[in-house]
Amino acid sequence: MDVMTVTLNPSLDREIIVENFKCGNMYRISNPSNAVMEPGGKGINVSRILSKLGVENMALGFLGGFIGRVFLEKLLEDKNITANFIFVEEETRENIAILDLKNHTITQVNSSGPKISEIDIQHLEERYLNSLSIVEHVLISGSVPPNTPEDAYAKLITLAKEKGITTYMESNGKHFNEAIIKSCPDVVRVDLRKEKRYLGNELKDLNDYVNAAEDIIKHGAKLAILSYHVEGDIIATKEGVWLFAVDEKVDRSHLFGVGDSFMAGVIYYILKNGYDYFEAAKFGMSSAIAKIHHVDKFIENIEEISNFIDYFEIKKVK
Q1: How far apart are CA 126 and CA 139, in angstroms?
Q2: What are the boundaries of each domain within the chain?
Q3: Higher pLDDT, 251 or 141
Q4: Rounded to 5, what percent of the chain is helix, strand, coil?
């Protein structure tokens, strides 16, 4: 087993397709395929995409209550994923996404997740440390439950680095900031489409994004990926900074899980082809574009990704 994903705050995701959705109305779902319930959370999404691409991996995190049991039952349907969770007292969160394919919108209602104790954190760190002996790549991804120490991500990344493991992080917020400063991973992806801030600084124009990407590299990352606009990402390595941009208009109702597809593509490329980070970013972008072309948040096969290898423009900006 090569990969472990760490999702401290997994969720049971409900995706509902409602045309012409408006707040305050009552809707009836007549087609069962328009209402899907599945395990989610950013790291879990990456685990499931990698699994569909034939990569066996381990998923670690916290689960709790009835929702946690439903989550686990659904996740265990995937034979390529080994579940490795710490069970806590409070309920795993439940997220609801309403996709209006006619008006190209997503409406999301997300829970905050269960409160966790110091003992819970200690148990997870012990389980994580034991699991590091059987993997070579670790992704730490997504939000954190209430009460999680600010240095939680930094600690987990440090433990992996000490064992020579390649580290990845996809997140935002204070836990992300702490990890960048104290123990920057090898690959960093940050979604800035909603909160356009990096280490407390507001990002207003392309130059701000370029500076933020360069700063992540200066802190020790080998690849930095920053979402710039819906149709573009800023990519940085030690060799420079690029803008990857898609010419076509992106259907915003298809954006659910795009960032996770990007990160899964990067990890898959490195697993199969080695440490060419720029080429890994290109493959990640192709994976994200493949996902955008359908409402489902998962990529089914490598052929689907290969169709979009030359589907975007690359421009060096620094």
Answers
A1: 17
A2: 3-316
A3: 141
A4: 35, 30, 35
- Give me the helices (H) in the chain, please: 42-52, 65-75, 118-131, 152-162, 174-183, 206-218, 258-273, 277-292, 302-306
Least confident of 35-39, 175-179, 247-251, 296-300: 247-251
The tokens of 178 are what?
């702490």
Burial class (CB in 10 A: 0-12, 13-18, 19+), 212: buried
Distance, CA of 63 to CA of 55 (rounded, Å): 23
**Angle of helix 152-162 relative to helix 118-131, nearest 10 degrees?**
20
Pairing assessment for the beta strands 232-237 and 223-229 based on DSSP bridges: antiparallel
3-state secondary structure of 266: helix
CB 82 within 8 A of CB 58: yes
Choose the CATH number for 3-316 among 3.20.20.70, 3.40.190.10, 3.40.1190.20, 2.30.30.100.
3.40.1190.20
Q: Decide: 13 and 95 in contact? Cβ < 8 Å.
A: yes
Q: Phi-psi category of 227—alpha, beta or left, where left has phi over 0 and alpha has psi -120 to 50? A: beta
Contact 291, 257 (CB under 8 A): yes
User: Between the CA of residue 154 and those of 149, 159, 308, what are the distances in Å?
Assistant: 10, 9, 34
Q: What does the alpha-carbon distance between residue 206 and residue 154 come to, in Å, rounded to a whole number?
A: 28
Put simply, whether the predicted model's pTM sits higher than 0.85 gets the answer yes
